[in-house]
Amino acid sequence: PAPSPSGSGEEGAAGRPLLAEVVVDIAAPDVDRVFHFLIPPALEGRLEVGHRVIVPFGPRRVEGTVVGFTGRAEVPPERLRPVAALQDPVPVLTPALIELARWMEDRYLCLFVQALRAMLPPGARGDRVRLAPRVWVRLTLDPAQAREQAAALARRAPRQAAVLERLAELGPHGAVPQATLLQAAGASPGALKALARKGWIALEEREPALEEPAAAAEPPAPPPPLTPEQEAVWRRLEAVLVAGSSAAGPAGGRVPPGQQGLAGEPFPAGQAASAGSGVAPHGTAGGRPPAAFLLHGVTGSGKTEIYLRAIAAVLAQGQGAICLVPEIALTPQTVARFRARFGNRVAVLHSAMTPAQRLATWRAIRAGRKPVVVGARSAVFAPLPNLGLIVVDEEHETSYKQEETPRYHAREVALARARLEGAAVILGSATPSVETYHRALEGELGLLELAQRVGRRPLPEVEIVDLRQEFEAGHRSLFSRRLLELMRERLAAREQVLLFLNRRGYHTVLLCRECGFVLRCPHCDVSLTVHQLPSGRLVCRCHYCDHRQVPPATCPHCGGVAVHPFGLGTQKVEETARKLFPGARIQRMDADVTARRGSHEAIYRQFAAGRIDVLIGTQMIAKGWDVPGVTLVGVVSADTALHMPDFRRQERTFQLLEQVAGRAGRGPRAGRVVIQTYSPDHPCLQAVARHDYRALFDLEVAERRELGFPPFGHLIRAVVAGPERPPVERAATRLALAWRQAVDDAGVRAGTVTPAAPAPIERLRGRWRWHVLARAADGAALRAATRTALERLRGAWPRDVQVQVDVDP
Ligand code: ADP
Ligand code: ZN
C-alpha cells in the first residue's frame, strides 16, 4: 500500500495541518462517527489508515482505528487534541477493509465500529494480548570487515569482538534475536550499544516469529492433469483470472475495481464513487465476463482441484487468495491439500488458535508473508495487501452466517469485498443455495458446472425406506430390515458404514406416555434432551443454556409413572448397533464426544485408516470427508430435518442429505445410501433419490416466488429481548407500528411488516424474546425504512430491553 499522508509537516487541503480521522472503539450510536485528532510529532510519517491508536476522549483515553486523514477540522483548532499513542507497529486493517466496513454498516444496519470490530482478530483490541516485539541484532558490515574489527577489538573490548565474530558467522546481513546473541556471546547490552553507535550493527524491532508449520517434508505435489470437464471449467476461469491469458478475449482479463457489478446491489451512492465508478447492476458490464462464478459440481467432481489451480494462477501474478471453508471442513485433510500445493505460504485460521497465534498470523498476512489464507467465516476479513481471489467453498453452508452483531453472511461480504478490490470470486457447492443459483441463472454470476465425479465414479444409489411399512410389519428396530441387510453385507465385505442423525440427541425428549407431557427447560422454552452418563444414569439437559436436571420419576403434569426417554439420539443408535453387530468396531462422533479438543481429528484419522467399521454421527461427519472405504451411508431418520420451522427447510434437507450421500462410494466400489423416513413421497426426498438439484431448485423457486421469500424478496427480522415479558411485548409492538409507518412513509414496494409476536424460542438464557419480520421487494428501500424506524424509536426503549436486527435472516 502507498505510504500514508501524515504529520504536521504536510499540509491539508486549505493549508491546515493534516488530521487523523479516528473511529473510537465504543459501540454507541451517538459516537459512531469519525472524530478528528492532531498527529503528534512522534507519530509524524508513521500513522497509516488501519492503525490502532489510543486517543483522548472526554476525560478518558480510548482505543480507536484510523480510518483516514483530512485537512478540514470539524471543531475549532484550539479544541483539537493529539493522538495519544500508536498501538501496533503494522496496521491490522487495510484501507480496502475500512471501505468494506462502510458497506457492512449499510448492508447489515450495524454500527460502523461494530463492522470494524468484526474484522479485527481477537487480541487486537484492548490489551488482552501483547506480542512484545523482539529486538534483533543485524550486522551492517560485511563479514570480512567484521572479522577485522573483531581482531582489532579483541584486547580492548573482548565482548564487542565476540559479538562481531558471532554475527560474521551468519554471513552477510546476518541477524539474531538480541537475547540469543547476548547469551551466546556472553556479551552485555552495553557492548551492543557501543557497536550500534559505531554503526557496525543495527538493533531492530521485529514481530515475534510465527509458529511456522515445519516446511513440507515432500516437494510440493504437482497438480494432476485436469479431466475434460475440469479443463472446460478452467478455461473459462483462466480467461478472467490470468491477465493477458490467451483465452481472454479482447475485453477479457480482470475488470478494474468497481467496474464489475457483481451479484448483489450496487453500493450506496457516495461509496461507489470511492471504489470506482459505473457499478452496473448486473454482471456483464460492458460485455465483460463476470469475475464472480458459481462452480456447481457434484461431490467428488474435482472442485477443490479447480480452486487450487485458480489460487496458483493468482499467486503467479503476485496476488493473494482467500479460501473460505465451513469450520467443520477444516479437517487435517483439507489443510494438508493446501499445504501440499503451496507449502508455508499458507496461513490457516481456525477456532482452536489462541488469540496470540491469531494476531501473529493476521500480521503475517498483512505484511504479505502469507498470500494464501484458508479459514472459516471471519477469514473473509484477512488483511491481504493485494487480493486477487476469494473462494467460498460450500457456499450454501449456514456457518457462513454470523449469528451475532454484525449479522453478516461471509458469502455476501466476499462478493462485496472482491468488488471493492477488483478481485475474482468462486462460489463452490454441490447443492448451491437457492439465492446463489438464481443469481447464476440471472447472469450475475458465471455458471460453471461439473456434472461427473472424477474418474467417472457413479454417484451413490439412494433408496428410500418407508418406516410406516416397517411398523406395520411389526419391525420395531431403529434400523429397517433393508438397512440391516445392507450393513451385514458391507461389513462382511470389510467395507465401512456411516450412520447419520440430524443432530445429537435431537429427538430424545422425556415423554409421558399417558398424557403426552414433554419435559422442557425452565429458562428457554425448548424441550430438554436426555443423555446417558457413563454410569448409566440419565440426565436431562438444555442445549441452549446447559440447564441440567435428573429426570422426574413421575410425570409433573398427570402424576403418571410412564415417563421415559423417547426418540433417537446418537447414543441410542450406538447402543442398538452394538447389540446388532457385536463383532464390529463401532464409534460415535457428536458434539459430546468431540468436546475434547482434538478428538474430532483423532476419530477422523482412525476412520480414514480403516480402524472403525461403523461410524455414527451428526452433521460433523457429513462434510468434506473423503474416505474411500465407505460404501454405505444410512440416514436413520430424515424427518426431523423436513419439519424444521424454517422457510429454507427443504433446501436445507436436500443439502444435508446430498452432503451425507456424497460420503459414500468415493473409492473403487460404488456407494449406496439408505434414507429412512415416515414421508417417503416428499418431493424433497424424491429429488435426493435422483440427485436432481434442478428439481429441488424449481420446487423451491415456485414456492418462494409465490410467498415473496428470497431471492424474490428481502427479509429483515428484529428480535426484542429483555428480562421481563410485558416491557418486551410493549416494545416489540411499538417497533412493529413504527416500522410499518416508516415502510408506508417511504412507499417501499411490496413492503409488509408482521405484527409483533413471541419468537419461536420465547425464552432463551433467561430472557424473553419477541420478534417482528419485515419483507419487501426492494432490499435497499427496506433497510432505509428500518433505519428510520429504529432512529425514531431510539431513546424510547425501556431500560434492559434490546433490539437486534438481522438482515437476510
Ligand atoms: P470436490 O471438491 O468436488 O469434492 P475434489 O477436488 O476433492 O472434489 O476431488 C475428488 C477426488 O478426485 C480427490 O481425491 C482429488 O484428489 C481427485 N481429483 C480431482 N481432480 C483430479 C484430476 N484432474 N485427476 C485425478 N484426480 C483428481
Ligand atoms: Zn435452557
Automatic annotation (TrEMBL):
Q: Where does Zn(2+) 1 bind?
A: 512, 515, 555, 558
Please describe the quaternary structure of this protein. Answer: Component of the replication restart primosome.
EC main class here is isomerase
User: Which InterPro entries does this entry report, sorted A to Z?
Assistant: DEAD/DEAH_box_helicase_dom, Helicase_ATP-bd, Helicase_C-like, P-loop_NTPase, PriA, PriA_3primeBD, PriA_3primeBD_sf, PriA_C
- Name listed for the protein in its UniProt record: Replication restart protein PriA
- Per the record's keyword annotation, is Transmembrane included, yes or no? no
Binding residues for Zn(2+) 2: 521, 524, 542, 545
Q: Which gene encodes it?
A: priA
DNA-binding in keyword set? yes
Q: Name one GO molecular function term.
A: ATP hydrolysis activity
Under Enzyme Commission nomenclature, its number is 5.6.2.4
**Which Gene Ontology CC terms are recorded?**
primosome complex
Q: What does this protein do?
A: Initiates the restart of stalled replication forks, which reloads the replicative helicase on sites other than the origin of replication. Recognizes and binds to abandoned replication forks and remodels them to uncover a helicase loading site. Promotes assembly of the primosome at these replication forks.
| Sequence similarity | Belongs to the helicase family. PriA subfamily.
Supply the SMART domains for this chain: DEXDc, HELICc
Q: Which UniProt keywords apply?
A: ATP-binding, DNA replication, DNA-binding, Helicase, Hydrolase, Isomerase, Metal-binding, Nucleotide-binding, Primosome, Zinc
Q: Name one Pfam family in it.
A: DEAD
Signal peptide stretch? none
**Where do the segments described as Disordered lie?**
209-228, 247-284
Report the record's Gene Ontology biological process terms: DNA recombination; DNA replication initiation; DNA replication, synthesis of primer; double-strand break repair
